[in-house]
């Protein structure tokens, strides 16, 4: 008799634990979905949060987004007296004409990382003379955006950290390195600037 009660108790306990596990596994995704969808102000006034407002504001900078290959602005680098046309895209067609804007990045002036690339033997021949504290000025249809160089880096050619998202409006300018290398250069010369005026 004692053995039967123990077996029944074990079966009952298994059902109870199984029920708790099922309830918890169904509740957790619901709880997570509530956290990720909580972009509404907790005061229930219907206001969106700061991130949503920033996204709306940054998209309002440009009424029209550039097409691939289209000239979209000018990059000025006072330190080296350079005024370079910027084209949307970084294929050889764009880079032959001037500076290329990496299409997977935001447009200049917007929050996040705007990435510009150019050839070391044409548009960015003197880029090595630009240093921390120097200015990079971008003029587009949305206005003039001034960035101050915060960091200079030299990375391997396959280093993808150059195009990662940034928490604030950033301009990343990249070219092949060393500047006097013959053939496909093994590294990249990177300038990273923070937006200081728009």
Automatic annotation (TrEMBL):
Residue numbers annotated as active site: 119, 176
One of the record's GO molecular function terms: hydrolase activity
Transmembrane segments: 12-31
Pfam families associated with the record: Sortase
Chain intervals for the UniProt region annotation (Disordered): 36-56
Keywords: Hydrolase, Membrane, Transmembrane, Transmembrane helix
Biased composition (Polar residues): 36-47
InterPro entries assigned: Sortase (IPR005754), Sortase_D (IPR053525), Sortase_D_1 (IPR041999), Sortase_dom-sf (IPR023365)
Protein's recorded name: Class D sortase
Organism the protein comes from: Cytobacillus oceanisediminis 2691
């Amino acid at each position: 008799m004692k053995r039967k009660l123990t077996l029944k108790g074990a079966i009952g306990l298994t059902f109870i634990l199984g029920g708790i596990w099922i309830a918890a596994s169904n509740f957790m995704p619901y709880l997570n979905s509530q956290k990720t969808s909580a972009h509404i102000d907790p005061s229930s006034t219907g206001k969106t949060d700061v991130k949503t407002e920033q996204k709306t504001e940054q998209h309002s900078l440009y009424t029209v987004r550039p097409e691939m290959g289209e000239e979209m602005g000018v990059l000025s680098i006072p330190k080296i007296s350079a005024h370079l046309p910027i084209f949307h895209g970084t294929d050889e067609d764009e880079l032959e004409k001037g500076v290329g804007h990496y299409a997977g990045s935001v447009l200049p002036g917007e929050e996040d990382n705007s990435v510009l690339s150019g050839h070391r033997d044409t548009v960015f021949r003197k880029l090595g003379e630009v240093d921390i504290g120097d200015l990079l000025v971008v003029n587009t249809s949305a206005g003039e955006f001034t960035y101050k160089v915060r960091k200079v880096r030299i990375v391997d050619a396959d280093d993808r950290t150059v195009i990662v998202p940034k928490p604030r409006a950033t301009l990343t300018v990249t070219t092949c390195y060393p500047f006097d290398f013959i053939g496909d250069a093994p590294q990249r010369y990177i300038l990273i600037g923070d937006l200081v005026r728009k």
